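Hey L., structure's done. Input below.
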Amino acid sequence: MTVTLLVGGCGRREERAVRGLGWSDCGDGFECGKLPVPLDHGEPDGEQLELAVVRLPAAGDRIGSLVVNPGGPGASGVEYARAARLVLSEKVRERFDIVGFDPRGVGRSAPVDCLDGEGLDAFVAMDTTPDTVGEQAELEAAARRFAAGCRQRAGRLLPHLGTVDVARDLDLLRQALGDQKLTYLGKSYGTFLGAVYADLFPGKVRALVLDGALDPADSRVRVNAEQAVGFEEALRAYVEDCLGGRDCPLAGQDVEGAMDEVGALLRRADARPLGGGGRRVTEALATLGALTPLYDRASWPELTEALRRALKGDGSLLLRNADQLAGRQDDGTYSNQLEANLAVNCVDGPYPTTAAAFAKDAAEASRKAPRFGPYIVWSSLPCAFWPARPTFSQRPLTAEGAPPILVVGTRRDPATPYGWARALAGELRSGVLLSYDGDGHTAYGSGSPCVDDAVDRYLVEREPPRDGVICPGIR
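Output:
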């Protein structure tokens, strides 16, 4: 089977016939296929990649396809779509085929590979609060090894993994699905992908939900600093809740004291790593393990138990959380989400190009976010030595000519601070802001009937809520 695809961009459109998706049954009511896309969209007839695609056919009166992306970058859209019955309402599943795809470089779609499991273990555990010249040199060496591994194992892919490339893939997917216009739900990084798509192809937008938004105009340095503050504020919300309960392990009599206690725990792991079932839980692993449950308010009890054990020297639950976010399996292998995350971020905008500049940024972030600032800033250090040039320059995306685009922001979102949603909604010419006065990362499907009903109505009927509506939080 072939379909005719229109290769667009910069006013240039040309038709070419390509192999279709080739749907086949892959269990539990899902169908799987492959989408051919050019490695380099500037050379549409050159080397091709195959993107993994999955869909759950609509259960009722079908409107078209709803393409979903869970973010990352580096998270699998295939796996997210596979969870459609849990993350999307019955109303939406009745009216749309739910379609997910692994973006280029991710999961089953020409995955970028940089290090083996042992190398990734060392990279994730590296000291991201260097106290001496020697420690900073070790950190720089680890970042250079990561970048060099990516160049050696995936060099031809790296220049073509940016979000602009993925957005062009998304338009090819829309055409292959037979949809005249795109209906899309993007979360976290998926909001950036959706905004880039709308800016490139405003006339091809039907309805876009951008939940947990990034601000495309923010520099990479500011993104790291503001995200660190977001996690700090989320930790504060958790601590306030913890101190109000009966089993909080934090001994501090007030919020500031308890926050300091968490910080002291993480710093102790720098000098003396916690135990972790045969693995050493370094400060970096403990920090990653502490911030992971902040993504979801429902995980706060897990953080309470993890801190209780860690205060007694047992870092096993913090380590489990860190492994989860890093994509580490029990057998020591990794998914490629960590490698894909850096590979996309490093070409989606310019970073500082020296370790000294990162040290300055980390020190500044530490003043506003002492628990998480240095960790988040230093974690991007491989981008200083990246073997591919940035393909996106930070700027507002306006999507001039697009219909209303729904931007959803959560007031105490740790990973994508609320200010980013306000900014994106203001930058998009047709942006509509829906706010959720709650905790955790993203809002749709988190238990708020106010948010869910507004998103469902917009997707199905193309009727957005009034700009500026605030949905109450759920306790």
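The mean pLDDT is 94. The chain is about 40% helix and 15% strand.

-- N.
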